[in-house]
Amino acid sequence: MTVRRLDPVLVDRIAAGEVIERPAAAVKELVENAIDAGARAIAVTIAAGGRELIRVVDDGAGMSPDDLALAVDRHATSKLPDGDLFAIGTLGFRGEALPSIGSVARLSITTRRADAAQGSALVVEAGEKGVVRPAAAAIGTRIEVADLFAFTPARLKFLKSDRAEAGAVSEMLRRLAIAHPAIRLSLDGDHVTGFDWPAEPLSEDGQLRRLARALGRDFPENALRLDAQREGFAIAGYAGLPTFHRGTSAGVHLAVNGRPVRDRLLLSAVRGAYADVLPSDRHPVLFLDVICDPRLVDVNVHPAKSEVRFRDPALVRGLVVSGLKAALAQAGHRAATTGGARTLEAFRAVFAGSGHGASVQRPHLPDAPGWALPSGAFGEAAQAGFAAFATPSADASAGTAEPAPDALDRPLGAARAQLHETYILAQTREGVVIVDQHAAHERLVYERLKAERARAGIARQPLLLPEVVELDPVDADRLNAATAELATLGLVIEPFGPGAVLVREAPSQLAGGNLQRLVRDVSDALAEHGETGSLERRLDHVLATMACHNSVRAGRRLRPQEMDALLREMEITPNSGQCNHGRPTYVELKLSDIERLFGRR
User: CA-CA distance, 166 to 159, in Å (whole number)?
Assistant: First the structure.
């Protein structure tokens, strides 16, 4: 067959298939152009999900008649003044968006510069470029796209419903709005919940107000400031507490130099940072912007510019992981404020269905001070195996002693009672705190084991009589293959015939525990985690399993001093707001919440 050049209009339509695959992509290109033009206010209107109409109006720099004539030609752009592809400081630069849109729709542009007495207008229809004409116009640019894909009917077949396409437009605009809080951004149209978000000052309060609009009004009080840098890269933004999570990744907002992206490297880094504190089926809520010299990142690796390539990806991933982990660790015992709301909802459901005759089990009110933990309270008791908790205290009908005034001012308050031998009820100045004793102590032991491993290795204790653990041959082989890793965690084993291992040493903190069950659970943990992921994550997974074996179990009755010691230890331990599985270790109810529950507010 004879080789021939394609018709320029057909070339534009092929390019449109790469750059403009749906209405949201067209809106993205137009809004990014407005941002690059210095707009301080951008208004977007859509009809039929953007298929019938897309209108983008901005107050940016506008274009001269000559610029307007060139703007709709392929590979024409104002964003590469020196032609350097390795120093791109704008959101767009390809010079393909406008001609691509014009080849598959009716494109109308009206624009005016601040120093011009009048504006200019141009229409491109199905790839046919009109002439530039004078027009009355406000400063800035107004672009209308009518009948998108009308000239490529096959593309229309792949569009989703108008509501779904409108939702994609809204989500895309929210991501741009988060990355650029200083710009007023509005959306209007059918099949979509419109919004009009004012410009915010470039300050912490301003950015949090924009994030509250986009991620929910509860986000600011459950957010942690991100600020870290390393070797020419920096990260800034806000990360939600681990217990402030969602069922999808829609709440994860990432940007590179203000460019919203859905980059696999960054998403993987976020998952890695939260892996130790979040349930496996949940996702964090955050905004993170990677800031660097444009020469250190290639933004031209994806037609839609949704992915980037860093010159040093390992450095960037390490910075994101360490920066997020540092922020989460500094949060200490904090848990999401929304836990109280969920608790109230549960109470209301119970009250609504219980009727007046429902019986309520009386909580255990601990004895007055008896056996007391030594100084260092919870930590020393944990290292000793918590033998004292094994013996339940006697029942009592008297209440606890009056708490010390300073205890009420502590973040988790003063312990007042134990409910169902599982939950600690504490009183604060502003309300009450309910703590899951097993979940909380499991986290404390885990964090202590991790810190011990990081300092000098986990202390281990030789067994007077080595213990034989019978296993399935596959489980035994899995453990034997990980002997070196387990030794660094204080668990020393060796093969003992087919389907068995011999335990010679165990972590000192687990001395006296059920080694048979521990070894079996460690084997299950290794199987669950598999061979994938980093060695550190694999070891953490095993440590979390070990920590569970040395935790205060549900059903153990605690004395006042023991409960207070647990609360004080939580207040100074990183990540103690959630257990090793990512569930909250406590919920807090303000007095105002309780008063609303009883109709007093």
Answer: 11
What tokens appear for 190 in the block?
């059918």
The answer to whether 472 and 499 are in contact (CB under 8 A) is yes
**Listed residue (316, 272, 276) closest to 292, CA to CA:** 316
Q: What is the pTM of this model?
A: 0.80
- Specify whether the CB–CB gap between 443 and 575 falls below 8 A: yes
Residue among 94, 27, 103 nearest 58 (CA): 27
Which amino acid does the sequence have at 424? Answer: I
Smallest CA-to-CA distance from 263 within 220, 216, 227, 313 is with: 313
The string of pLDDT tens digits covering residues 325-361 is 999 999 988 988 887 777 777 666 665 665 544 444 4
User: Residue 558 contacts by C-beta under 8 Å, 6 or more apart in sequence?
Assistant: 366, 389, 393, 418, 424, 437, 552, 566
What is the rounded distance in angstroms from the CA atom of residue 554 to the CA atom of residue 545? 17
Element of type H or E holding 529? helix 515-529
Classify the C-alpha dihedral 548-554-559-560 as positive or negative.
Answer: positive
pLDDT tens digits, residue range 121-171? 999 998 899 999 999 999 999 999 999 988 877 778 889 999 999 999 999
* CA 332 to the chain's CA centroid: 17
Beta strands in 297-344 (DSSP E): 297-298, 309-310
| Tens-place pLDDT, residues 376-430 | 444 443 343 333 333 333 333 334 557 777 889 999 999 999 998 899 999 999 9
Dihedral sign from CA coordinates of 552, 557, 561, 563: positive
Distance between CA atoms of 545 and 518, rounded to whole angstroms? 8
Domains in the chain (CATH in brackets) are 8-197 (3.30.565.10), 204-330 (3.30.230.10), 358-601 (3.30.1540.20)
H-assigned helices in 84-152: 97-104
Of the CA atoms within 13 Å of residue 263, those in its CB half-sphere come to: 27
